[in-house]
Amino acid sequence: MKENLCKIYCSPHLHSSETTTKIMFYVILSLIPAILGSVYFFGFYVLNVIFVSVISCVLSELLFQILMKRRKVLFDGSSIVTGILLALVLPPRIPLWIAGIGGFLAIFLVKELFGGIGFNIFNPALTARAILLASFPVEMTKFINVFDYSVDAVTSPTPLFIMKENINQSLPSLWNMFIGARAGCIGETSTILLLIGAIFLLLKKVITWHIPVSYIFTVALLSLIFKENVFYQIMGGGLILGAFFMATDYVTSPITRKGKIIFGIGCGIITFLIRKAGGYPEGVCYSILFMNMFVPVINRYTIPKKFGSKK
Amino acid sequence: MFKGGVKLLDFKSLSKDEKIEEFKYPEKVIIPLSQHTGIPAKPVVKKGDYVVEGQVIGEIGGFISSYIHSSISGKVIDILPWNLPTNRKSLSIVIESDGEKKSIEKKQREWLKLESNEIINIVREAGIVGLGGAAFPTHVKLTIPEGKKVDFLLINGCECEPFLTCDYRVLKEFTDEVIEGIQIIAKTVNVKDVFIGIESNKIDLLPVLRNSLKNLKIFLNIEIKVLPEKYPQGSEKHLIKSILNREVPSGRLPIDVRCVVFNIQTTLAIKRAVCDGIPLTERVLTCSGLVGKPKNLKVKIGTLISEILNYCEGEVKYGRKIVTGGPMMGIQIANPDVPVLKGTTGILLLPEEKLPEDIQPCIRCGKCIEICPMFLMPSEIGRYVEHGRYDKCEYLNVFDCIECGCCAYICPAKRPLVDFIKCAKLKLRKK
Description:
Number of helices of chain A: 14
Number of helices of chain B: 13
Structural class of chain A: mainly alpha
Radius of gyration of chain B: 21 Å
Strand order of the largest sheet of chain B: 1-14-13-17-15-16
Distance between the termini of chain B: 37 Å
Distance between the termini of chain A: 52 Å
Strand content of chain A: under 5%
CATH topology of the domain at 112-276 in chain B: Rossmann fold
Number of strands of chain A: 0
Mean pLDDT of chain B: 93
CATH architecture of the domain at 112-276 in chain B: 3-Layer(aba) Sandwich
Shape of chain A: globular
Number of strands of chain B: 17
CATH architecture of chain A: Orthogonal Bundle
Largest sheet of chain A: none
Structural class of chain B: alpha/beta
CATH superfamily of the domain at 112-276 in chain B: NADH-ubiquinone oxidoreductase 51kDa subunit
Helix content of chain B: 25-40%
Number of domains of chain A: 1
CATH class of the domain at 112-276 in chain B: Alpha Beta
Oligomer: heterodimer
CATH class of chain A: Mainly Alpha
Radius of gyration of chain A: 21 Å
């Protein structure tokens, strides 16, 4: 018997070049247009927020792995994605220490304590945002005017807030909404830049169309039925960012196509309910978190029919 | 077209243009008695017996079993358990060549005059099994059960596994014989409509095939279907789905949707057995990958894989793995001193891949579910296996898995999903 020259592997003996790290890299790449846009609209301060949030996420991941005495430190870039996504849903002039706390909450509390990548129930970035919103309601709702780069910029209500409270202020034009020149969270304002990233992800097959399309379509349909302005509903809040980048989070969304469509529709209904009947002007964050809870149930009832089960 | 599957780089250009070469007459062969699906054959020779090529050395062990013939002439020097390329052991007959290359008397027959049951008997006695890899006894497939009818005969020329080109070469070089084999099968199972399925990367075969189809001996509608390159197009169930749009019910056979499927080399073996009286003692296989000279070789059954690798200048060294069969479903062997079986479609020398040492967590991307051609949930089965919940695996239809390997191929976390599935099947069968 010759000695073994190679470990024995089970078939297949070919693997695609796709890796978890590569997918995370694509997601980071797809968010770059939106990040650059946010710098243009809200000033260089947003880069500080993103930086602090990412560093906080990465360090929290490292800290947890050291505390748990894991021999090998696993680094796949997913904490960077969480950090960026968290920063993108924070207001542009958020104090940096709040962003830092957010990063820690997202990774340490929401992701790692539940078992790390692949096991968390809730979307880390959105859960962190929800906790921050409950803990720092003033800072978390202070939105500013676009192109005001000063540190203490003039505050300005978001389009959804204007519509909800019927305050006496004009809404930004549709074109401005489309390019992103409106008050809002760092990364949510520019529809076009987010769509560029989303198309990239779709082409790279990182995400599928099922969740975003069913989500946005549901919101649009409900807006039509209840006579809201469809375009302002779609582009006025965090819907585009949420539908393409948050709701499609692998771990916290259903795994089958059918399940994804149910998930998207559910998110759409709850988003619209919160906007129309709830206490907040915006409901994307809570709707996705709410639907996250249903993912195991949706998965259980959407098991695909196996090949050859038709009669 | 079937849903799911993956597009693969085919690596076929390595050996596509290499003519089939006859491998040297081996000095020693090791012929296992269990090379087919079903009951092993019973040895009918003793140590010291003299045998010639084509002589029966293993008798059929039951209905789903097969005869085994000597592939060379010489002396039986031992009967002992030997390692198979499937990493199992089987009682094997070791024959040493006397260099005289004698063979049994070959009986020429006119197949048009033969009845179905006579043809089936010839096929049975020639020890023919499915040469596409599964090695299911062919006479069983040819025997249409009472009350069943066959509408279509499908000839599987897809060869969807990367690297392998042996069926392509056989179809190119022995076209007339294969077409004759198709007619024999069609007559045996009593069908008039035949489809030959090939993948679009073999489109250059069309003129050769069309030309050969001009001189049929019996009336048949033979249509060549060019199918898109998509793995696992050559899977029996998916070929039927693609060509006839019929879905073989779970746990059933192609005959339940009124069709039968035969591989190219099986068809050729049937023709040779019926017309020329040659039992199955050799096959064509592809030796490719990191070998110096990739080749398509006609090899005697029982030849050692190490000899073939030597001949093709395949250096077995650190960081290389030897795989028998295709890269997607083939089996890696630890030791090249194992014999070529009837079902060995290829011998590949592949680089060891850089896969994570520990099993990485599933990120639930759902890609494996998107591409699973059997519409199963490999990721979920994998997670349940990790937790020892085999009952859940059964609920998720793990037994319908054809182990094509698409899921493990696509998985970004490089999880060993086929390992998990095989493990679940094993545990559930033991219960």
